[in-house]
Amino acid sequence: xxxxxxxxxxxxxxxxxxxxxxxxxxxxxxxxxxxxxxxxxxxxxxxxxxxxxxxxxxxxxxxxxxxxxxxxxxxxxxxxxxxxxxxxxxxxxxxxxxxxxxxxxxxxxxxxxxxxxxxxxxxxxxxxxxxxxxxxx
Amino acid sequence: xxxxxxxxxxxxxxxxxxxxxxxxxxxxxxxxxxxxxxxxxxxxxxxxxxxxxxxxxxxxxxxxxxxxxxxxxxxxxxxxxxxxxxxxxxxxxxxxxxxxxxxxxxxxxxxxxxxxxxxxxxxxxxxxxxxxxxxxxxxxxxxxxxxxxxxxxxxxxxxxxxxxxxxxxxxxxxxxxxxxxxxxxxxxxxxxxxxxxxxxxxxxxxxxxxxxxxxxxxxxxxxxxxxxxxxxxxxxxxxxxxxxxxxxxxxxxxxxxxxxxxxxxxxxxxxxxxxxxxxxxxxxxxxxxxxxxxxxxxxxxxxxxxxxxxxxxxxxxxxxxxxxxxxxxxxxxxxxxxxxxxxxxxxxxxxxxxxxxxxxxxxxxxxxxxxxxxxxxxxxxxxxxxxxxxxxxxxxxxxxxxxxxxxxxxxxx
Lengths: 137, 413
Known about the structure:
The complex is a heterodimer.
Chain A: H1 3-26, H2 30-63, H3 69-93, H4 96-128, H5 133-136
Helix pairs in contact in A: 1-2, 1-4, 2-3, 3-4
Chain B: H1 11-33, H2 36-39, H3 45-75, H4 82-106, H5 109-137, H6 144-166, H7 173-204, H8 212-231, H9 236-255, H10 263-285, H11 290-328, H12 344-367, H13 371-410
Helix pairs in contact in B: 1-3, 1-4, 1-13, 3-4, 4-5, 5-6, 6-7, 7-8, 7-9, 7-11, 8-9, 9-10, 10-11, 10-12, 11-12, 11-13, 12-13
């Protein structure tokens, strides 16, 4: 399995959890919503940590590209973390408008972020540091 | 590929989007002045003027704003002095639209010729520049096809004015008229909607990716079918085939969307079904009478295009404004998410209004046609209000965050 396909699967899992959390918020099922939001945040933060602690430093060292695409990705991770905090607060307060707003913004942000990673960064990683693929599989 | 760091300054597409409802409102006000007889004649000068106000003023502003933004984000295409050229293009479009509508209303050849010259120069320059940049960027962008359609529409419109003014070139008026309508509505308008849908539907509605074959072949097939219809009226019968292929692909994506309760999902489905319906009926109804043609055109715009535009604007504008806010206020501030700029309840109300417009168009046309412009006026007012409020909210939030930041940094430590 390549880095692209392994991390792409993680993206899909995160998308699924967020979409399910949004659906439960729309249905007013706040207990389920809080659980799914928590799972989504944990899964997504673990994915970000994997990238920031393992993938990006190795890629930067191998390619010499420091402050390029990986820095853009880190900035977007920071924006997503802010939105995740908003999402958890909205779920705790059972505020559906706030939750849907945070969820939609986060979805759009993550979708465009994922597109860049899947189309540009991960293929570059597959070419530069293929040995990491086994760790992510 | 999606590269939001290549976004244009948000004010460039916003200027086009915010101007569009004013042209729609003007079209509705002018429609109110027409009598029953004029409503039935598609080639009456006032009807031609209003058609062009709708096509160029309302739809043209939205489509060009979307094209500029999507070209920058998807393929990294940006002018060196984007604010200047964005303003120049905006002025060309508004001036050309006003002169063309006035020229058609009064049947003044000088105004028509001036409008044709302005629009031809502006739109052809834009189309050639974009095609050149796509080619240089090395990406096989689906956006090339609607840009070709934009160029063909500008050429056919200019030829039409040439025939009306000088009888040159020696082509039949009906043939060039059919060419202009087909090229404008199919190769430009529908092609751009399809190209935008290829990106935004999977992204905004968390749906699966489009099939590769559709992505690659649908727009060239649409262009070929449209050119066949331009060459020979019998070609109109095949025009619905690529649209139906797109419709089935779209409905499948919407079916598998993970955001099933999003109002935009219904607007995309409703709009696409109506667009395909009109194109499927077109070859059998277009030559029957003027009334049938006006009904088809009205249904195409109000029930087909308008719901999709509503869905696009309600997502693209708040997301762009939110990204712009985050660029200026990297963290914190009162604006946490795009729902504070354009709440979903606004989209729901706009959705009800646009679906009501589509459903009631035919009965109102038969029973009380003056009600149609009143509903259009309501929609124009509603969308103008939503856009204005979104921009105002964003501006206020930026000023507040910057003031707070300045106060914090000035405090003695």
